[in-house]
Amino acid sequence: MNVQELPQKELVALYPGDGTLTRRILNRCRKAGIKVHIDTEAVRIGRRRWGRKTLVYHVPSLIHDEELARRDAEIRKNKEGKKLKEEKEKELRAARRANELSEMFPQLPTGTIEFLACSGKRIYLPNQIGYQYHIGTKSYWKQLGFAVNSEPNGIVVKGQRLFDTYSSDRLVPRSSRMTVERLKAQWLAKYDDEQLVLAQAIRIANRLQKVKKNRSFYDVKDRWIKAHQDQLTEGRIARVETRTCWGCDGSGSDGLCYRCDGIGVYSSRTLYEHSFEIAGQRFVFHSYIRPQVVSEERAEDSHNYGRPFAADELPCPPQSVILSLIESMMASDEH
């Protein structure tokens, strides 16, 4: 093959990078017998070794432009094919989801089912939302004293109606004119016993911890639990929480791991269930404090403690006011 050299004006710079484009252009130049000029530089490739690094190829502009257009066309075609495939898969997923939702909600019309299937949001049943699940509607969070500060992340279906749901991690306390004195007076009129007011306040504040945590609450709660062990009716083990030793990944290393003494568990703690009777009413709280008396019978093991609020407990007083009421009443009891 005769090697020909083209004038500089017919050449363009081809920088290494796109391996497919470079390979195609160089192959066409070789088949056409066109000499490709290469700019290189010396680079160290070892302690006493040097090599050459390619900086740029000087190739015919006509071949370069043709192969570049070919490469761009292939990329566009691949993108379009990928997009069509994704759209088809999305339609199939929506169809499967629509079938699932039709079985779950036979009362909903086809249009609503299709809307839910294509919404991309999680769909909830009424019994799957609440403070204990960290998911609620805007009106529900308002009843608990919080305002929504986020976009909806799900939809709950109640009969034939749809409601947006919001996660509890983006809620903010609502402003209120409620005071500690006013709340205490209202609850005394309702419960007719200061001990019962305090226990109810701790119970409600304990539930609201699942919505918005207050660091000081658990210390106050534990102080109350310790102070009322004489009213304990039963203490049981709720669960034992263990942390796997990271030094041996829980294997114990045949008893040789010094971090866990060869047992595979770095640390553990026990969560207890305390049952109290306060002014004739039963209260159950969970704490890492050991009850004075612990039954051999284990409590029901659940990581999702909490019951729905009763209708007469709503709307809920502001969380901050409830916590202030607890602290003021406990301070009075301790003095």
Compact description:
The protein is α+β, with helices and mostly antiparallel strands and 335 residues long. It is 38% helix and 24% strand. The protein has three domains: 8-70, no CATH class; 121-173; 180-334, no CATH class.
Relevant terms:
3-stranded antiparallel sheet; 335 residues
Overall body shape: elongated
Helix count, per DSSP? 8
Sheet of most strands: 4 strands, mixed
Rg, nearest Å:
35 Å
What percent of the residues sit in helical stretches (DSSP H or I)? 25-40%
End-to-end distance? 107 Å
Helix and strand content put the structural class at alpha+beta
Would you count the extended β strands for me?
Answer: 12
What does this structure look like?
β7 and β8 (161-167) form a beta hairpin. Helices cover 38% and strands 24% of the residues. It has three domains: 8-70, no CATH class; 121-173; 180-334, no CATH class. It starts with 10 loop residues before the first strand and ends with a helix. A four-stranded mixed beta sheet has the order 4-7-8-5. Strands 1-3-2 form a three-stranded antiparallel beta sheet. The mean pLDDT is 90. It is α+β, with helices and mostly antiparallel strands and 335 residues long.
Topology:
Blueprint: E1 11-14, H1 19-31, E2 37-44, E3 50-60, H2 61-104, H3 110-119, E4 122-124, E5 135-137, H4 138-143, E6 146-148, E7 154-158, E8 161-167, E9 171-173, H5 180-191, H6 194-208, H7 217-227, E10 232-244, E11 265-278, E12 281-287, H8 319-334
Parallel strand pairs: 4-7
Antiparallel strand pairs: 1-3, 2-3, 5-8, 6-9, 7-8, 10-11, 11-12
